[in-house]
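Re: folding output
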Amino acid sequence: MLDTKTLELVKSTIPALKTYGEDITKVFYRELFTRYPQVQSMFDMEKQKNGKQPKALALAVLNAAMNIENLDNIRKSIEKIGKTHVELNVTKEHYPLVGECLLIAIKEVLGEAANDEVIQAWAKAYGVIADFYIEIEEKMYQEK
């Protein structure tokens, strides 16, 4: 459960996510593939080039931010993403790598607007979001 201050800080970034979401996710993928080249094979490089993947991730991040108080609101869309994750063998060990690169990207793109307090709030929120994805995906793995 996230505290009120964390929720407010994450929600305060929604306008910036709407404007700069794809910029953030492009930096995110650059960082992820540079730092963790072993995960690159899990991604469709054609969707990287044509911008579909950064756009899809930007939307997922925005949806999570907009529904941070009740992620169940977006369970259906997370289940859809989860199916793809399970097909690609995404595991809970991948989530910390994603979180690290997402925070770097938010900081880089939003600059001064992403002060330490905002980044800490996003780190906490990402933990909750990641746990929600992991829980959904673990059920899918068990059903497989």
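--- second protein (sequence, then structure) ---
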Amino acid sequence: MTDSARWKATVYVGGLASLVTTTSLHDAFIPFGEIADVSLPKNENPKTTDLHRGFAYVEYEDAEDAKEAIDNMDQAEFFGRVIKVSAAKAPKSADEGLGSKTAVWQQEGWLAENAVSEEDRMAGDQAQAVGGARPGDPMQGLEGLDVAGPKPE
């Protein structure tokens, strides 16, 4: 299964109580389809007693099963809390976008989006050759405008 297909078949479950385990999540979401994986990220903060971070990802074998789980479990009560269930978003790459350490114009995504094809470049060169070697001077006719007041006659 490709990464994009996996994320389409994965649901985000938020607002979980601290008592929730992967087994209880699996049992709650199995009625909607075959589950491939349940991920309950552990809490890395040593100052809290919570075992997990309050959210989980449930990956189904089929994207239709994920949609069914969203329709049925969003805003449901689970371990005394109302949970939020939605389609999972693919994580952003550390090498792409504005938060990356690579300049945006050196990133593959930016280059693919903003690259000028050789055909377009040749068409621009031809249009410039037909219109003259150089466009008119934009400062032409602006002499004397730096002086305030009426124009002398």
